Amino acid sequence: MSRTMSKKHLLAGLAAAGVLGVGIAAPTVAFAEDATPSPSASSSADQGTDRQQQKADRQGEFAEALAKELGVPTEKVTAALEKLREQRKADRPERPSAEDRQAALKERLAQAVEDGKLTQEQADAITKAAEAGVFPGPGGRGHHGGMGTPGR
After folding, report:
1. 151 phi and psi angles, rounded to 5 deg
2. Cβ 79 vs Cβ 26: under 8 Å
3. Cα separations (Å) of 122 from 116, 125, 127, 136?
């Protein structure tokens, strides 16, 4: 195989690795969401460490397989994958903190009360529910984690 052809394969493989890297992380998220609550915070932290180690192991195995397929050293593939992860991380917008999200919610609720769309009691109930993690998704703990979730 020529040197030019190897570089083409390497670039194609790294592009695929960026896409596949997302697929590798996805099962970790799915398992984390399906996990039953642990009896203590320390065992929850242990589970998080175990999951991180399993993810690192899978990523290492992937890098080794990719390196073997491309005929390049594993260290080169690992470094390239890390570089791509860092670039992707830098390109993502920063997520607002839990405090910022909570402050924004309070502002929207205050405006809704002022506009007559909610009563103050309703706004207070929504705030209390959000603080208790009743709402799922990025704004509350719920099913997807977030504010105040142990290990996050």
Report:
1. 80, 5
2. no
3. 11, 5, 9, 19
Look up residue 94 and give its DSSP letter.
P
Per DSSP, the chain holds a count of helices (H) and strands (E) of 5, 0
- Report how far residue 110's alpha carbon sits from residue 126's, in angstroms, rounded to the nearest whole number: 11
Q: Report helix angle 98-114 to 120-131, nearest 10.
A: 170
Tokens of 141: 């703990």
Q: How many CB atoms lie within 10 A of CB 38?
A: 15
One-character DSSP codes across 36-99? PPPSSHHHHHHHHHHHHHHHHHHHHHHHHHHHHHHTS-HHHHHHHHHHHHHHHHHHSPPPPPHH
Structure tokens belonging to residue 71: 């005929």
Residue-wise pLDDT tens digits, 83-122 = 999 999 888 888 888 888 889 999 999 999 999 999 999 9
Q: Which residue has the tokens 């405006």?
A: 111
- Please tell me whether the overall predicted TM-score, pTM, comes out greater than 0.70 for this model: no
CA distance 27 to 55: 9
